[in-house]
Every structure is written in structure tokens, then in C-alpha cells.
């Protein structure tokens, strides 16, 4: 996947849902979730979204 491709609103929502699962699983604090969710909504590229979840296990989604 190309990191410089622009993302859609749907892709931003998917990233936020992944972050919500990480929050429920105890892998993120509420502060971390809030910061990352704000960054997800502001993301322009796939690389920016990928960076928000790269330290989380892939089995969350």
C-alpha cells in the first residue's frame, strides 16, 4: 500500500474504530486514544493513518 495516497472519510473512520478497540482492550489510555483519534480525523495520507496503529497488534482488526 502506498503511504502517500490520500485517504477517504471512510478510511479515517476505520482507523478510529481500530483505536476504539485498542482502548477497550486496555492497550491505549483515554488520553492516547483522544490524541490518536484527533490525528486520524486530520490525516491526509495512508501513511499518517498507518503510523497511528503501527504499535498495536493486527489481531485487533
Question: Could you explain the architecture of this structure?
Answer:
The protein has 61 residues and is an all-alpha fold. It is 61% helix and 0% strand. The chain contains three helices and no strands. It has helices spanning 9-24, 30-42, 46-53. Helix 1 runs antiparallel to helix 2 and helix 1 packs parallel to helix 3. It is globular, with a radius of gyration of 11 Å. The model has no long low-confidence stretch (mean pLDDT 95).
Residue-averaged pLDDT:
95
How far apart are the termini? 17 Å
Low-confidence stretches: none
- Rounded to the nearest angstrom, the radius of gyration is 11 Å
Query: Count of helical segments?
Result: 3
Strand content: under 5%
**Which class do the helix and strand fractions yield?**
mainly alpha
How would you describe the shape?
Answer: globular
Fraction of residues in helices? Answer: 55-70%
Largest sheet: none
Q: Count of DSSP E strands?
A: 0
Give me the strand/helix succession: HHH
What are the salient characteristics of this protein?
61 residues; 61% helix; 3 helices; mainly alpha; globular
Topology:
Layout lengths: L8 H16 L5 H13 L3 H8 L8
Helix pairs in contact: 1-2, 1-3
Amino acid at each position: 500500500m502506498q503511504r502517500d495516497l490520500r485517504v477517504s472519510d471512510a478510511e479515517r473512520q476505520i482507523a478510529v474504530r481500530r483505536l476504539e478497540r485498542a482502548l477497550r482492550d486496555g492497550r491505549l489510555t483515554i488520553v492516547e486514544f483522544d490524541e490518536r483519534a484527533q490525528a486520524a480525523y486530520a490525516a491526509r495520507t495512508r501513511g499518517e493513518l498507518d503510523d497511528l496503529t503501527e504499535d498495536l497488534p493486527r489481531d485487533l482488526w
